[in-house]
Amino acid sequence: MTSLMGKIALVTGGSSGIGLASASAFAQAGAQVVIVGRRQDAVDAAVRAIGLGAVGLTGDVADLDMHGGVAEEVRQRFGGLDIYMANAGVAILEPSPQVSVEHYDHQFATNTRGMFFGVTKTLPILNDGASIILVSSIASAKVLPGHAVYAASKAAVEALARSWALELRARRIRVNVISPGPVDTPILEKLGLDAEARAGLDDAMAAAIPLGRMGRPDELARAALFLASEESSFVTGANLRVDGAMALT
Fold first, then answer.
1. Strand order across the beta sheet in which 81-86 lies
2. How far apart are CA 119 and CA 101, in angstroms?
3. Is pTM, for the whole model, over 0.90?
4. 20 DSSP β-pair partners
5. Is the per-residue pLDDT at 192 higher than 60?
6. Average pLDDT over all residues of the chain
7. How far apart are CA 20 and CA 22, in angstroms?
8. Mind listing the pLDDT tens digit for each residue in 116-155?
């Protein structure tokens, strides 16, 4: 069994979906887990679900002041950090001519700027040999309707990962990316679709995936656990697509 015994792990967007599943996998592997989410009620529920001494903090990754505060809280409680998973993200899907400045800025503020400063503000407390995991999307490589701005914000994340993999090599800090395909998470509920439209969307996505179905959060969590652990000790600068081969179609 993969072990994270003695490790301290921080997961942003850890109160639902891929973040919650990954935080749970880290905790079950022995890590002390800290999650960050925007809503106190969701964070509290996630902490109860994870158990095993998990700690929940509330904040929005788009708020740059939050990152320094979270890093200081982790430093005071645990002394340092071994795993940083930047998972929090937002998607607003619409054709490019309909994209407002507000929607554009919101996606880049969360998905790109928030991720950048989350990592840089956390670097002082990251232990040498730590693992940074950035969550991107196959949309950065595969053109999907209505995804232009979201895809651009995630492509920037992948560029940052490649740069950081070399910038941080002297400290043996590994930086890798997970690029999910469609995953059955609560984010799909936020699209505002009725039951019939949601069923149609699910069927369409499943048909577009060579494995014939959407992914599950636990499948993404196992990929994150691999990158967080010594099982991937010679892996850095990589982009692990967990998408049922959808990017190939």
1. 55-58, 32-37, 8-12, 81-86, 126-135, 174-180, 239-242
2. 26
3. yes
4. none
5. no
6. 94
7. 5
8. 999 999 999 999 999 999 999 999 999 999 999 999 999 9
- Where does the pLDDT of residue 233 fall: very low under 50, low under 70, confident under 90, or very high at 90 and above? very high
Cβ neighbour number for residue 152 with a 10 Å cutoff: 16
**Percentage helix, strand, coil, to 5, in the chain?**
50, 20, 30
Write the DSSP assignment of 93-154 as a string of letters: ---GGG--HHHHHHHHIIIIIHHHHHHHHHGGGEEEEEEEEEE--GGGTS--TT-HHHHHHH
Distances in Å between the Cα of 105 and the Cα atoms of 108, 138, 143 are 5, 21, 21
Q: Which residues are tagged catalytic?
A: 150
Per DSSP, the three-state class of 39 is coil
Element (H, E) at 204: helix 195-208
Amino acid at 69: G
pLDDT value at 175 more than 60: yes
The DSSP symbol for 170 reads G
